[in-house]
Write a structure and sequence with these properties.
By secondary structure, this protein is of the alpha/beta class. The protein is built from 17 helices and 16 strands. The chain has an 8-stranded parallel beta barrel with strand order 1-2-3-4-5-6-7-8, surrounded by 7 helices. A 3-stranded antiparallel beta sheet has the order 11-12-13. The chain has a 3-stranded antiparallel beta sheet with strand order 14-15-16. The mean pLDDT is about 90. It binds 3-methyl-2-oxobutanoic acid and zinc ion.
Length: about 525
């Protein structure tokens, strides 16, 4: 019998596209999911949970496409304990070189009460569904949801049933972020000791962060024998989020002396993924967040700066380059040429075709005319803006002038091109952004409800670009838009129009032929 807990390799299972996307407001488009998946694959993530295929046709299509394009990572689709869910998940992931089905059911008393199943009925359902999944695919993950609040005897019983039915990975979720490090370790140790066949499968940990202990709980589980960590970029996830990929991976790297486990992650890709997920989800990374926060490598106090200049190790336990932050962040200016821009964008993970570079270069020059110093973050914001296929958009912003200040009313004069025809309007609002949004509404009447409006400064300084995220909802369909500009009102109007364009595309797709 192999005892998997003795091996020092920890499998990194990323669920940014499933559990992360489930966090209210973090809905991502098809293309955004593909972009994130491709970077996760390049980064060396072992398993990508690409979505919940039964949840919607959009989820199914994204998982299927990610599976088709996967190179190194195994691709996993989530399924409840139902034959329909499992079949749908298999139909989406079967295109991957390494497909995985992940099926789950809530096993704690509170969760058993929802489908109103007694212990024996639930045990039977687990046996039948895992057996069905294993007949489709030889890589099966099973999760007893709310495991940390499930009676130990029952947990051992159902884990044994899942292993006997063919599960190859047993994931132990702390669904409500309730456990603590010592308890998390004890639970894994208890299962490894008591469940027959436990040494033949991989035990996994999946922790939520409701008490701020997700990363500590995951690492404690690994110390006790778990060999898979489920996590998300930036800790994105329901409520307070999940274990953050960057935290566990860097903790294992920096404290390898006390946690002697390896992962396959190329940590230099961390910053790019963190920025991408933040932009796409509209969830800003807090400044003091471990590893990826803006201040994680900033040293402000005199004593710290002095120490840093003499020896960086005085106040730094890892180097900025280890997570993909370039040492000197100031990169480009008005006189930088096309070759330098191409090289810099390559460094930031964007390989551009010649015509794409031409377009980005025009935007770069326009930005450099308005802003003296162009930082990595500015270029990334520019890239995100230029991937929004503006030339094919139904609605394009041609002109915007606003009047704002202490004396109202604030007004917006706007010209939009709608399917190639220019329309003008003048509106008022409660502030210039509201006036600009009212102008869009006047020119493109719609019922979509604005659910979120967020502004972030990309860099420091009053000439910083603002990135604006907008989320709107129409008949249950969510659409998000982003844009960046040194003018916050222009960025806001463009983000709103971007979301509206996506909504129009979505409407057409769902119209019967
Ligand atoms: O938190 C949880 O329990 C989950 C399961 C679906 C694994 O996300
Ligand atoms: Zn979860």
């Amino acid at each position: 019998m192999t005892d998997t807990s003795k091996q020092d390799r920890v499998i990194i299972f990323d669920t940014t596209l499933r559990d992360g996307e489930q966090s209210p407001g973090a809905t991502m488009t098809h293309d955004e999911k593909l972009e994130i998946a491709s970077l996760l694959d390049e980064m060396g993530v072992d398993v990508i949970e690409a979505g919940f295929p039964i949840a919607s046709d959009g989820d199914f299509e994204a998982v299927r496409e990610i599976a088709k394009r996967s190179v190194n990572s195994a691709i996993c689709g989530l399924a409840r304990a139902s034959i329909g869910d499992i079949d749908r998940s298999w139909d989406a992931v079967k295109h991957a070189a390494q497909p995985r089905i992940h099926t789950f059911i809530g096993t704690s008393p509170l969760h058993r009460a929802i489908p109103n199943l007694d212990m024996d009925e639930m045990a039977g359902l687990i046996h039948d569904t895992v057996t069905h999944a294993r007949n489709l695919c030889d890589n099966i993950q099973w999760s007893p949801m709310d495991a940390t609040r499930t009676e130990h005897d029952y947990l051992c019983r159902v884990v044994e049933i899942a292993i006997k039915a063919g599960a190859t990975t047993i994931n132990i979720p702390d669904t409500v972020g309730y456990t603590a490090p010592a308890e998390s370790a004890d639970l894994i140790a208890m299962l490894l000791e008591r469940v027959p066949g436990a040494g033949d499968v991989i035990f996994s940990t999946h922790c939520h962060n409701d008490l701020g202990m997700a990363t500590a709980n995951s690492l404690a589980a690994v110390n006790a024998g778990a060999r898979q960590i489920e996590c998300t970029i930036n800790g994105l996830g329901e409520r307070a989020g999940n274990t953050a990929l960057e935290e566990v991976v860097m903790a294992l790297k920096v404290r390898n002396d006390i946690m002697p486990y390896r992962t396959s992650i190329d940590t230099t890709k961390i910053m790019n993924l963190s920025r991408l997920v933040s932009t796409v989800s509209g969830f800003a990374v807090q400044y003091n967040k471990a590893i990826v926060g803006k201040n994680a490598f900033a040293h402000e106090s005199g004593i710290h700066q002095d120490g840093m200049l003499k020896n960086a190790e005085t106040f730094e336990i890892m180097r900025p380059e280890d997570v993909g932050l370039s040492e000197t962040n100031l990169v480009m200016g008005k006189h930088s040429g096309r070759a330098a821009l191409r090289a810099k964008l390559n460094d930031l993970g964007h390989e551009l075709a010649d015509n794409q570079l031409k377009d980005v270069f025009v935007r770069f020059k326009a930005l450099a005319d308005r802003k003296k110093e162009i930082f990595d973050e500015d270029l990334l914001a520019l890239m995100r803006d230029s991937t929004s296929d503006a030339v094919h958009d139904h609605i394009q912003l041609k002109r915007l002038a606003v009047v704002c200040g202490t004396e109202g009313p604030q007004t917006a004069d706007m010209t939009l091109s709608i399917d190639g025809v220019e329309h003008e309007v003048s509106t008022t609002g409660d502030g210039p952004v509201d006036a600009a949004f009212n102008a869009v509404k006047a020119l493109v009447p719609h019922q979509a409800r604005l659910q979120l409006y967020q502004v972030h400064a990309v860099t420091e300084g009053t000439d910083a670009q603002a990135t604006v995220s907008v989320r709107m909802e129409e008949d249950g369909k969510i659409s998000t838009g982003q844009s960046a500009d040194t003018d916050t009102v222009v960025a806001s109007a463009k983000a709103y129009i971007n979301a509206l364009n996506k909504l129009l595309v979505r409407r057409q797709k769902t119209k019967p032929a």
